[in-house]
């Protein structure tokens, strides 16, 4: 069958089971948009190319499938760079297809020409400039495979316009032959036995659960391991929900703004069972002081992560779902017999200690019964309204930390955010992509800050046009909240360029302009009833603005570069520490 290269793009996506693409047409990619009319693909027309890749990320994070975006050459392709980097940092499987100027014009500084493969090489797992129409199917098939296998990540296929217009004989095969790409999936048997021996010997073990568990779909295996051996579990920002927060073995989230008990658990543990995590600086704090008494088991599908930041006593390269399955097979064979006592660590005292830390060091918020809404109260009310069935998507900043701290997540892929790169503007498009992925029966709630929201709210037009009923909740404190917090704490409250007037824009008028319902909450008395009204609307996007106390800060907090031992639970504790460090006044000098 004779088809064009452009048709080959669409037929390749269909053959791979892709059901939706997020994109924006333009000159170089225009040939591919013509066969899209007949293709069995849904297309979401975005308002900015960065929106397309964040939607693809949201879709991928919510479903575990590869998210696909398609844009034209030059500035359209360069507008993907932030999303590609974000996906690389957070191991999100993305396929980006970009148009390119005609192959005969490459290198001539043609209109909207850019060296897209050169620009994106550092921020993709794989990319390719396609040289002929015959290569299109193979390039897309291989890129798709690379995106979702091994450590997931973004890939890019750049296709010149004349290649899209070439005619070829269509041919498809599901076989992928990449001799230089063979991710290790199964863990080494001896290392797995060594890991189980270390676990059995430990007295203060803790599972350090990272986002790799979510990407691998290893929640069930994690649950069985933790409950079989009574191992406390700490879930990172990217792993929230992979082990239910409601379970007694849950300790909380670690890191700069983590739960106190989780941070202390890492500092006091004698064994870190590290699963799909990478010893990120936001978790470790001062690396030399992190988990100083711990031996380390490190399981990761990416061998480059093993030993990169912390040496591992038992390194295991492999897919964390497969490795855990290997461990569990050994445990299932032996836990029912005489060897049980030799395999199960004695953690009773340790778990009781962690329970005491959780009880004695709760998250603190002082919410008056009436008047101004505290942001923490708003986020708790959002969860109380939409509940455990919803998927929650956050932007980046204070609201992100509160949403990760305060909402009890119960399953993987329930919490979606930008972790490694910390991309402001992520929430609005990512929530839309997530909603497309999970379908109409699952509520998707975007929890955004006023700063983040103003970066990408133009995508609400796409939500309206394509009937994507996301709930957009804006926690509006009138500031770049996290930047203001740092200026307050570390720059003597010298606030520089952080004010965002709450009425500019007027979000209720913005909602009206997009033709969607808008609700504003200004006092705590209005909060629950207003959110309940918003929840009743399920057939179109909804915008909820909650005006909150601008002075509230995110605590606990480990100051940047400090040891986790220096964790602060409140701004009052920070002020007291500063006062203790201040030099004593000279009695001979006037006050």
CATH structural class of the largest domain: Alpha Beta
In round numbers, the mean pLDDT is 95
Number of helices: 25
Number of domains: 3
Multimeric state:
single chain
CATH architecture of the largest domain: 3-Layer(aba) Sandwich
The CATH superfamily of the largest domain is identified as Thiamin diphosphate (ThDP)-binding fold, Pyr/PP domains
Terminal Cα separation, in Å? 91 Å
Radius of gyration: 25 Å
CATH third-tier fold name of the largest domain: Rossmann fold
**Spans of at least 5 consecutive residues with low confidence:** none
**Proportion of residues in extended strands:** 15-25%
Describe this structure in words.
It is built from 25 helices and 20 strands. It has three domains: about 1-170, Thiamin diphosphate (ThDP)-binding fold, Pyr/PP domains (Rossmann fold, 3-Layer(aba) Sandwich), CATH 3.40.50; about 190-360, Rossmann fold, CATH 3.40.50.1220; about 375-545, Rossmann fold. It starts with a strand and ends in a 10-residue tail after the last helix. The mean pLDDT is about 95. Strand 19, helix 24 and strand 20 form a beta-alpha-beta unit. A six-stranded parallel β-sheet has the order 3-2-4-5-7-6, with helices on both faces. Strands 11-10-9-12-13-14 form a six-stranded parallel β-sheet, with helices on both faces. Strands 16-15-17-18-20-19 form a six-stranded parallel β-sheet, with helices on both faces. Helices cover about 40% and strands about 15% of the residues. The chain is an alpha/beta fold.
């Amino acid at each position: 069958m004779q088809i064009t290269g452009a048709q080959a793009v669409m037929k390749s996506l269909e053959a791979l089971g892709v059901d939706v693409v997020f994109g924006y047409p333009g000159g170089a990619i225009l040939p591919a948009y013509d066969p899209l009319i007949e293709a069995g693909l849904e297309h979401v027309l975005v308002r900015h190319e960065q929106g397309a890749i964040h939607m693809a990320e949201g879709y991928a994070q919510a479903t575990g499938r590869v998210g696909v975006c398609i844009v034209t050459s030059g500035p359209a392709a360069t507008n993907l760079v932030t999303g590609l980097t974000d996906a690389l940092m957070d191991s999100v499987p993305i396929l980006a297809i970009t148009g390119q100027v005609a192959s005969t014009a490459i290198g001539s500084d043609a209109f909207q020409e850019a060296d897209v493969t050169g620009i994106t090489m550092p921020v993709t797992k794989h990319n390719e400039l396609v040289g002929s129409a015959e290569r299109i199917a193979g390039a897309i098939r291989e890129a798709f495979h690379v995106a979702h296998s091994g450590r997931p990540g973004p890939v890019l296929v750049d296709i010149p316009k004349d290649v899209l217009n070439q005619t070829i004989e269509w041919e498809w095969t599901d076989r992928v032959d990449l001799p230089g790409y063979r991710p290790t999936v199964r863990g080494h048997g001896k290392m797995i036995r060594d890991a189980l021996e270390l676990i059995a010997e430990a007295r203060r073990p803790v599972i350090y659960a990272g986002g790799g568990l979510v990407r691998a779909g290893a929640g069930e295996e994690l649950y069985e391991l933790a409950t079989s051996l009574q191992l406390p579990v700490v879930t990172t920002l990217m792993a929230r929900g992979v082990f239910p927060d409601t379970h007694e073995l849950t300790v909380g989230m670690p890191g700069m703004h983590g739960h106190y008990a989780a941070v202390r658990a890492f500092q006091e543990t004698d064994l870190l069972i590290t699963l799909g995590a990478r010893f990120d600086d936001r978790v470790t704090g001062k690396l030399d002081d992190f988990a100083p008494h711990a031996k380390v088991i490190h399981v990761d599908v990416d061998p480059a992560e093993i030993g990169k930041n912390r040496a591992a006593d038992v390194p295991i390269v492999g897919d964390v779902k497969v490795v855990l399955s290997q461990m569990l097979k050994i445990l299932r064979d032996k836990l029912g017999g005489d060897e049980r006592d030799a395999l199960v660590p004695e953690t009773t005292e340790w778990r009781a200690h962690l329970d005491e830390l959780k009880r004695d060091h709760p998250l603190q918020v002082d919410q008056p019964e009436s008047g101004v809404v505290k942001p923490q109260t708003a986020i708790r009310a959002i969860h109380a309204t939409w509940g455990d069935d919803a998927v929650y998507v956050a932007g980046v900043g204070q609201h992100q930390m509160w949403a990760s701290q305060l909402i009890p997540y119960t399953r993987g892929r329930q919490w979606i955010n930008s972790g490694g790169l910390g991309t402001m503007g992520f929430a609005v498009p990512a929530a839309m992509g997530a909603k497309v992925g999970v379908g109409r029966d699952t509520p998707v709630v975007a929890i955004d800050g006023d700063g983040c929201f103003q970066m990408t709210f133009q995508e609400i037009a796409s939500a309206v046009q394509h009937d994507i009923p996301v709930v957009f909740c804006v926690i509006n404190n009138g500031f770049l909240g996290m930047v203001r917090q740092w200026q307050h704490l570390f720059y003597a409250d010298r606030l520089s360029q952080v004010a965002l007037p709450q009425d500019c824009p007027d979000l209720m008028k913005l909602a009206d302009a997009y033709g969607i319902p808008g609700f504003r909450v200004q006092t705590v008395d209005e909060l629950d009833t207003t959110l309940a009204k918003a929840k009743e609307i399920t057939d179109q996007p909804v915008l909820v603005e909650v005006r909150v106390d601008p002075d509230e800060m995110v605590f606990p907090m480990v100051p940047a570069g400090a040891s986790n031992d220096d964790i602060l639970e409140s701004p009052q504790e920070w002020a007291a520490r500063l006062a203790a460090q201040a030099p004593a006044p000279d009695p001979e000098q006037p006050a």
